[in-house]
Amino acid sequence: MKVLVVEDHEELAQTVAAGLRREGMAVDVVLDGDAALERTSANHYDVVVLDRDLPGLHGDEVCRSLAGAGHPARVLMLTAAGTIDDKVTGLGIGADDYLPKPFAFAELVARIRALARRSRPALPPVLVHGDLRLDPATRIATRDGRRLPLSPKEFAVLELLLAAGGAVVSAEQLLERGWDEFADPFTQTVKVTISRLRRKLGDPPLIETVPQAGYRI
Q1: Where is the OmpR/PhoB-type domain (predicted)?
Q2: d(CA 5, CA 22)
Q3: Considering the entire predicted model, what is its pTM?
């Protein structure tokens, strides 16, 4: 899952991003509305966590622009103003959900996951392939009843491959959806992660390399 955090308070933005990364999400951070529109025009995000009260280009205008452009990302609007009228206004301009500050981090994570499920074709709550089971909600993957000790990136890659339903997923797609903006596209990051994942999944092998195309379950 890839998330863009748009928050002008840099310390809060980085704290939220760090917490979301611990939850296995790929997170980019921008500090103003103009940068948010620039980033969303160039990248695919499942969810945009958008502070409403941004300086310069207001969060409302960012939300209207995303909705008007038909951007596929779901928008979770954050604001210190939490009255019913504020919520109605935020939802009316295109936000998909609304969370007043201060908020509990666990609730933020739950709302982001719920929105991400709505940003793509419906998937079953637990992804299953043979004796392999992956539960995105609990962050638990098992094979033949044995829990797999996966890192956040290994879990993210396995989830993307299972969600593809047997279709080929390119290394570029895995890098875009599973890593944040600091990932170097010229490294062997995806290849190394796939190699580690294969070892942890064990035999018989589940991940196939499709030459010059990518990987599939």
Answers
A1: 124-217
A2: 15
A3: 0.68
